[in-house]
Amino acid sequence: MSKVPTITLNNGVEMPQLGFGVWQVPDDEATAAVTTALEAGYRSIDTAAIYENETGTGKALAASGIARDELFVTTKLWNSASETWTRESVLREFDASLGRLGLDYVDLYLIHWPRAMRDDYLTIFRTFVEIAESGRAKAIGVSNFQPAQLERVIAETSVVPAVNQVELHPNFAQAELRAFHARHGIVTEAWSPLGQGRGLLEDPTLARVAAKHGRSAAQVVLRWHIQLGNVVIPKSVTPSRIRENADVFGFELDADDLAAIAGLDNGTRLGPDPAEFDFS
Hints:
The chain has 280 residues and is α/β, with parallel strands linked by helices. Helices cover 40% and strands 13% of the residues. The mean pLDDT is 96.
């Protein structure tokens, strides 16, 4: 695997542009999957409390022999409706995630969803600021936030989230949100970057671009993300695909390729709409 480029976050922390996601990976499979990813050269691992695989992820990190400062570990607070979110409850959940991961700190801590209708994300983010100031999270950010919520966080805390992790793939390219991020110094991180295996990778346009470069459609899509400047976290439990997804730095898409892929943006969202999504 070629050396993964990094992106400098707005607080100076360096984040690998390619990482390994473990969404929907059972805890008893996470150790093997993360171990394979680390052996393939990934150094950024993205998990979350709700994934229920922080323990398995942490076991792989501990057994890897890789120095902690060479790893970039992200986890997320599941800000469910079953909790009244206060400073104390956020700190409790953060400590629980650290305990499951077996770490003294994480590199990035995210609010998983805005749940704007419950209006508690400011309390949560203010506590995140405290966690960052203590050094137990090297950077803090959000996931699935829209511009109105980002503007409010910035205005009321005077802290710009380092990252906003959002659904993003060629069928849902989020150009306006990416432009907002760029104006405010927020890094765009893509979840479901390959379209969740729901037909995107069979698109004939991607097939043509892939054939032109002697690559797979998945590699073309990941390369598209890299060239847009996104951070991207593909997920797989198949060792060959984990390795294939890491091999995206030995070719470059040209202007014609990028224009063709841009034409696939049809506004198709695969996950929940953040403006409406609430959960228990």
